[in-house]
Amino acid sequence: MLAKNQLLAAIAPVNRGLKATELEKQAILAAIATLEDLNPNPHPLEALDLLDGDWRLIYTTSRELLNLERLPFSHLGQIYQCIRTKSNSVYNIAEIFGLPYLDGIVTACARFSPISHRRVEVRFQRSVIGLSRLIGYKSPSQLITDIENGKKFTALDFTISANNNPGWLDITYLDPDLRIGRGNRENVFVLTRA
């Protein structure tokens, strides 16, 4: 599909948005809008088999995520969003690389509830932030299994108040290997199947 290839080509040189100029951002947002108009699954919450799984972030406008690159003595590795539709769970996992033995993980665990054919409400419940070797991090799937089994980590591991304000995410494009979402903070997320 030409529109999809154009979007992927526009995203390729900007390192998830970290290196995007204003002109590149505008071109990427235009390519995203074009692809959203061609969404093969306009009711993505009815295509749970496509939605479920591990996704890798390739572009975002989220300053919260991109600012992880600014941590001292480190750089941002892969960022994953792992969706488990059977439990309505979502796990955001960012890998942080730095000095030897100081590689880390920043994880946010949430539950989602469908509120329309393409929008989900998201409530964050837990966060785990720590050194990869102390957590025993090997992969997103292994970390999620540990979290779901109730493991407590040697890390900053805390519950997020149930009174927090929920966010929402519209899934505006979904195919077997690409997903686009737009969040309540006007952020855009483009992810590929991991």
End-to-end Cα distance: 20 Å
Determine the fraction of residues in helical runs and give it as a percent range.
10-25%
Integer tally of domains: 1
CATH class: Mainly Beta
What class do helices, strands and sheet pairing give?
A: alpha+beta
Query: Any idea what the radius of gyration is?
Result: 17 Å
The shape, in one word, is: globular
Q: Report the average pLDDT across residues.
A: 94
How would you characterize the largest beta sheet? 8 strands, antiparallel, barrel
What is the CATH-assigned architecture? Beta Barrel
Count of helical regions: 6
Question: How do the strands of the widest beta sheet line up side by side?
Answer: 1-2-3-4-5-7-8-9
Topology order in helix (H) and strand (E) letters: HHHEHEEEEHHEEEE
Task: Provide the low-confidence segments as ranges.
Answer: none
By DSSP, the count of extended strands is: 9
Under CATH, the topology is which? Answer: Lipocalin
Percent of sequence in beta strands: 35-45%
Task: Provide the descriptors you would attach to this structure in a database record.
194 residues; Lipocalin; 8-stranded antiparallel barrel; 6 helices; 40% strand
Explained architecture:
This protein has 194 residues and is of the alpha+beta class. The chain contains 6 helices and 9 strands; from the N terminus they run αααβαββββααββββ. A hairpin with a 4-residue loop joins strand 8 and strand 9. Helix 1 runs antiparallel to helix 2. The longest helix is centred in the N-terminal third of the chain and has 15 residues, at 22-36. The model has no long low-confidence stretch (mean pLDDT 94).
